[in-house]
Structure formats: structure tokens, C-alpha cells
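Final paragraph of the annual report: two paired records, presented back to back.
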Amino acid sequence: MLKHLFTVLLLLIAGAAHGAANQREPIMIGMIDGMSGAFANAGEAVARNLQFAIDKVNSRGGVKLPDGRHMLALSVFDNKQSVDESMVELKQLTDKRIRFVVQGNSSAVAGALIDAINKHNERVPDRRVLFLNYSAVDPILTTEKCSYWHFRFDAHADMRMHALTEVVRDDAKAKRIYLIGQDYSFGRQIAKAARAQLGAKRSDIEIVGDELHPIGKIKDFAPYIAKIRASGADTVITGNWGNDLTLLVRAAREASLNVKFYTFYGNGLGAPAAIGDAGVGTVRAVAEWHPNVGGSDKNRGSDRFYLDFRQRYPQAKDDYVHLRMHIMIEMLASAIETARSTEAVAVAHALEGARFQNGFHHATMRASDHQLIQPLYVSVMQKKGEGGVRFDNEGSGYGFKTERFLSEASTALPASCTMVRPQR
């Protein structure tokens, strides 16, 4: 018996040593985004989502490479939502030989990162990096500024606006629309896309206001709500996010403004709680997924995914699960394994045309412009427990119910990209 126990002990020690030998240095992912200031809550939500996705990969043993298994690890760099600070943080990131950059909470920052990474990769070809974009949705990033080193995992603004205006087209009560957004490249693109798409789909609609406001600086949106009321608008379209959205809809509620809100991000970061009962049946959001898409045998995996996240972060009330960030990490891990390398060109080649499938969602990375093509949902706000809404958002008591589902084929707007590809 003692001899048997000794043999088992030796096997356990040998196994542990073998596991340690196969555990190589981690594959670092550098997140550059705002972790302080007006949009700190958005940055913190991203970090939680990314860490959850990374933990899922690591729980399976990490990423398999020819020299053994490597864990993924996240390193966060606070850019204070500034382009200049982002350049400083990118330099620190590349000095640390981190090969994968992730960012998303500003299209202006994303555009600057693309330019800087293009130059860096040309100047230092043995230390090239890839830029994985989880939220910066200005279409220019995959059109005029498209880059071999940049991949976008969110639907761009024109794709999201296409989904929203498909619903507006069938909304007979939508007659007078007010556009309001943040005054930077993304906000301007939202207004441009809304005008073009509404003009094509509903020529009878009148746009009665088109307003841009400073990003992250407005503390009281009451004057803007007064303008919307005075315009006679029955519908508002906004791409606002973070506190700019929360404060906007809170001001509308406090002023008892009875309009429909068609939003890009009205389903998270405090917006549902700020809107309250006034949003039931009137506030819509567009996203690649939402917690209440499940509820059937086919989509049971969606429920498990959501509940796993809530179990991991039970106290994160001001939070929302962003499926696209999980897709990004899973597709990166798979591409590294396919490439059998973390070298940027090899991983980029493996990502092109790559497919994602998890049982309740599927997506394809379009090779021509590095834009992820995936379904989109337009959902409407409801009280938890009503209309099939089983899960609320951020503990607010309000959740979202699917109003329109758009398949991959329906969201895949034409590509327009002339990409310079490196010599492998």
C-alpha cells in the first residue's frame, strides 16, 4: 500500500512538473481606453468583459502553441479618453513587447491608433502589433482608413443605423425626428447616416433637429430637452454613450418628454435605470445580442453565458455583457492556435475569413475590410417579468425584448476598402 501511494505521489509530482514546464509566459493583451474621467464606467465595463472572456479561455488551458500552452493576460492602459494620451500608452505597450492592442470607446482614438500602428509596424517589422477594435464604429475605420493591422468586432455605425431605421421605417407614428449626438467623428457620422437612410426609407419623415454637443462635458441636458420639445419631435435618434446618454435620457424623464428614443447604447451603462418607466415600450437599442434572446431550447446557451457573467460579477450593477468582446477574445485565441504563432502577420492571416460559432451566435470576419459580420437585434425596453423579459439590465428592473432580428446577410453592407497587405 505504501509503495502504491509513493508511486501515485511521484506521478502527481511529475505531472505538476510537466504542467509547469508546459506553462509558458502569458500572451499579453494591452487595453488602451478611458479608465478615469467622465467615461470611466464604460472603460471599467469593458475591462470586466475582457477579463471574463480571458478567464474562459484560460480555464480550458489557455492557448496551445508548438512550445506548450500559454495563458492570456490583460494589461490595462488608461488613456483618459485622449488621443495624445493614447499615443503615450501605445508607446509604453510596444516597449513592453505586447503584440495585441484592444480599444474601442472612441472612434477618434481608434483612427489615431490605426495611423500610429501602421507606422510602428513599418518601422519595427520584428515587433509588429495587431489592433483589435471592440466598439469604435465610425465606418471610415474599415473604409478609407482600413488597415491590415486593424480588425473591428462591432457593427459599424452605418450597419447599426441600418438596423434602427428598418424599425423606424415600419413605425407609422414616427413623423418628426430629432437627431442628437456627441460632437466628434462618430456623432457626426451618426447624423449623416440617419439623414441618408431615413431619406431612402421614409421620405415622408421630417428631421426637425440636428444637434451635436461637446462630448463628456455636458452636466445638464435640460436645455437640449427643451429644444427637442419645442421642435415638436415625436422620435429621437442618438448615438450617445456613457454618461452622455444617461444624463440625456434622465433629463427627458425629468421633463416628462413623451418621445421614442432609438439608441445605439440605451441598454446599458446606467441608461435603463435613468429612463425608468418612461422607457417602457418607447426606448429601443441595437446590439449584436441581449440577455433575453434565450428562453428556448435552441438558445439555452445564451442563458448560460449571461448567468455565468452575472455570477462572476454579482455586484457590478452598472454593467452590461458585451458579447462582441467575448467573440473578439475567442477569435483571437483560435487565430493564434491556427497560426501556431503570435506573430502579427500570421495571426492576421488566420483571422481573415475566420468564423465564430458558440451555439447561439455566429459571425464571420470579412477578409476584404476586416469587419466582423454578425446578426443584430433591435430590442425594446420592458419591465422585468413582462413581455417575455426574464432578465433585467444592471439590476435596474428593466430589460429588453427583441423587436427585430437582422441576419448576417441583412447587416452586411457592401465593403469599400483598398487594403495594403504586407509581404509575409
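The closing record of the year follows.
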Amino acid sequence: MCLAIPGKVIKVEGSQADVDFGGVLRKINVSLVETVPGEWVVVHAGFAIEKIDEEEAQETLRLWQELLDFEEQLN
């Protein structure tokens, strides 16, 4: 199973970007997409693979949190 997580681009320098994942910043390779600070990207294995709008990103993050909360209730 592959997971791709949305994150907000904070800073871009060449093919690398600082991307915010809920307060955790990671260096991500953005050579596959053109992006600027403030945009949202979907990241898989350290690569931004597509851009998404903020509404879709927030909905995806909400669903992930819902799933994690449900799993926690099972334990």
C-alpha cells in the first residue's frame, strides 16, 4: 500500500522545498511539479507528486485524523 500525504509548501529553493506537515517541516523534492510557497502538494516517498487545492488538502487531513481516532478507539 502506498501513502501520499498533503503538505503546505513553505519555501522553495531549486528542486527542494520546505513542506509543512501539521507543524513538522520536511525537505521535499519538487522536481516533478512546479510550486510556490503557500501551495499544497501531495507527497509520496519524499517527492511532491501533484498539487492540490487547500480545501482538498484539509479534507484529506480531516479524514486521516478521523481514521486515526477510530483506530485508537479500537485499542
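The chain has a mean pLDDT of 94. This concludes the annual technical report; the extension proposal builds directly on these records.
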